[in-house]
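Human: I would love a firmer grasp of how sequence relates to backbone shape in proteins. Could you go through the record with me and say what the backbone is doing? Here is the record:
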Amino acid sequence: MKKAKLFLILSLVLMLFLMISSSVLAQDERPICIIFLHHSCGHNLIDGGNVREGLSNLGYEFFDHGYNGDGLRLADGSFSGESFNVPDDNTDPDGLAVIFSQPLHDPPDNTFSHLMAYDVIAFKSCFPVSNIADDEQLAAYQSYYLSIRDKTDLYPQKLFVIVTQPPQVPNNTTADEARRARQFTEWLGSDVYLEGHPNLVTFDFFDLLAGEDNTLQPAHRADEWDAHPNDLANQEIGPIFVEFLNAAINHYFGEGYTPPEVGEPVEEEPQQEQEEEQEVVPTRNELDLEERKWHPDTDGEVSSVECSLDANIVMTGESSLYINYALGENGYASCANFFDAHLDWAGEEGVSFFIRSDRAGQEIVFTVFSGPMDSPVPFEVRFSSPEASVDSWERMDFRWDEFSKPDWHGDGGISAVDPAQIISLVFSMESETSTQGQFWVDGLSSIGATSQEVLPEEENGGGGICPFSTLVMPLLVGILWVMKRKKKVYNDRG
């Protein structure tokens, strides 16, 4: 009898253990989650090609995000009412580069952080990207995707899928533009771009749609002026896309792989530079970019600029200053930093910083405002982003005697930089023709410094090198605005 009771108790304990174990396993198991960022052609491919159904039948959960107005669609195909707030609704190469330059936050508060809540991140530009006007634009597109690749390298636990843009119809392009579009998509799928980056793959949507003339082939056109692939194209390519994603996921994660946790943003991993180790020249009196506030400014008409801190691409500190700009004709953009007390670099020989760029030849103006707090004078030095700065850090040194007062300012005020009375540091870009680019600045410091001092409180009214005060800021912003207006009038006259 005792043995029977003991057997019954052990049996119940074993059953309870198995029930708990199976419950834990069930909680741990979940399908791989896929997100696809797109616009209208992607929406049509998903719906017309039964992409969601195909992936669901394979055990995946497929989500997608179109225009911000449409927002996120859930795994069941319903609209969630949630938007990832894609900057400017831009999924062209430059817009994608902006997204991938964003920091990763938990909880998500930007597009990149929302995308990183999924295991597989697919993204696509639309057919206007196939209008590649010249080789310079082609090189710019490639540089944007190189910066995207740098970011994906930081997240080996994720799989990233580039979906190339559709081709244009012949009526909306030229033979040269179409040729460059083919060249661009072939490069995105080449070993030159993908080799050594196993968590990045390319689905060549362009190649499946284009004919020998590199435009949307007749069988896939809705009409002769519309580059949206038609229903037949979506029906044919949808299953191919599903098969590609399934193969890529199984190849990278392994068949039967189950993500260890629900897809939520993870902390940034330290960047592992792929370039050769280079000697860092010591700098002194380095400004802490983490404590600085950089203010964007543009002509307000045809240009835009982003000034932010980037914790992923750094040279000497914890963050670099990231500047991403687009100029229209006769455009202007800048990132300015103000001090609420004089930055005293008396005895120093000049200014030094490291620069890293997405392309060489970007025309940049570095301006130092110096003099009395109520009437500072600009002194500028002009330079181009050097070839050595492309995807690598290059040190720039400028002596005080290399700075000159711009013609548009006139003859008033001090005649040369007073290192003991520095009020503002500004990076600006201007161009007669439309252009765009991005670069990073780190290690901003003086040359030949031994210590960093600020005028004593009784002389300047308080404070050291810290975020500008609400009292000083309007004055300095106003001064910069007046300087910009003077410069515009001068250029218009000249």
